[in-house]
Structure formats: C-alpha cells, structure tokens
Amino acid sequence: MKSPTTAMLLAAGLGTRMRPLTDLKPKTLLHLEGRPLIDHILDRFEEAGVRRVVINTHWLAEQIEAHLAASARRFEFIYRPEAELLDTGGAVVSALQAGALGDEPFFVVNSDIIWFNGPSPTMTRLAEAHGRDIADATLLFHRTHQIFTDVGHGDFALDEWGVPRVPGENQIVPYVFGGVQILNPVALAGREPRNFSLYGVWRDLIDQNRLRAIVHDGLWFHMSRPEDIDIAALALEARMTGATT
Length: 245
Description:
seven-stranded mixed beta sheet, 6 helices, alpha/beta
C-alpha cells in the first residue's frame, strides 16, 4: 500500500492534567528539547510524505494556527475548530463528512505524543503493515514496560500475526495504544459526528477481524502531566550523552 498523504492531528483537548502549563497555552505547543510538541510530530509527517494535515482545535486554537502560519512548513493545513468537543471519533467523522480527509486511508495521530524511529521509519512500517492485510485500521502499540508513566493494566494484547485483543476483567496486558494509526474511511461508515471515542470503533473492528497493530521499536513518550515532559527530556539527554544512570 502506498503510504497515506493525509493525516489528521487530534489537537482539541483541554490538557487539564497538564495544568498549570496549559492554562495559557495548548498542550501541543508545550516545548520539548526547545521545540513545540507539534513540530516534532510534523517532522515525522514530512518524513512519511504527508502533504495534507487536518487539525481539530478547541482550547486556545488561535495559538496553534498562528504558530503554523509563521512556520515554513509546506503542508496544506486544514483547521477543524470545535465549539463543543467531539472526542476522537466524532472529530474524525466530522472531518470525513466535510471532505477534508478524502476517500483513501489516512493517518490519525494524537498531538500529545512524541516518537522516534527505530531501525526504519515508524509511519512507513505502519503503512506497510496496513497494506499487507484486510484491516480497516492498523494501530501503533508501545510496550508498557518501556513507559515511565501510569499505564494502568495496559490497553491490548497482541498475537504473533498482529491481531489485537482487549483484556479481560482485571487482566494485565503488555501494550498501550501509541497514538498513531491508519484508518480506512469505511471503518467509520454510518457514524454520526457526535462526541464518541475511536476505542469503540476498534472494538467493533476486533469483532470483525479487521483491526491490526504493530509494535513500536523506538523511543516513545506520552505527554499527559508536567512531569512527563521532564522525564522525556532526561531520557533524550541520556540518549545523546550515552548516560546509563
């Protein structure tokens, strides 16, 4: 499968767990290694050949638009302001119905994650995996034991063929969703642009044997709390300096 050239960046969250850092700034504009989180993600988009970036916004949306307008990025940016939050599923359905995402598979990426490639580019690996199978969605997973924040019992198990499974009650599973996925438009057929999570879509696709996943093989960070930025900065400094403690 040819790698998608359209990506939706989910940037409408309020960032309440990141307060007070997000009192006056949207979470995706917080800095890591001297650059806004969104710039790190756009680096990965450029590397993957993405040309159109659809962004849903809500909290302090004008700051995101101003930042991107002042950048030298050569993407086609399409903004999807939300007067009322639609959650991940509603945001994607709304963009689909407006024609912003086209009719081919597209990336959907959370704006509060940062990832670094392993031996090969992560988004390329995701596209290759999606093209090999019958899936209507292919997700990026990350190993829970490599995450320095609360992951609860994990999100999914995964068999050797890349087929995810949701955990049973009180079961601990080894993977969390890594915030990057490819969706086929058909996966959302018949859905309304209301407030709902993509998690329910994944559950339906699991029942239909049309959900797949790959495991990330590089560094990955989720920016949920202020301390998460400090943890990521220390890990990246250790990588650059060769520190082991």
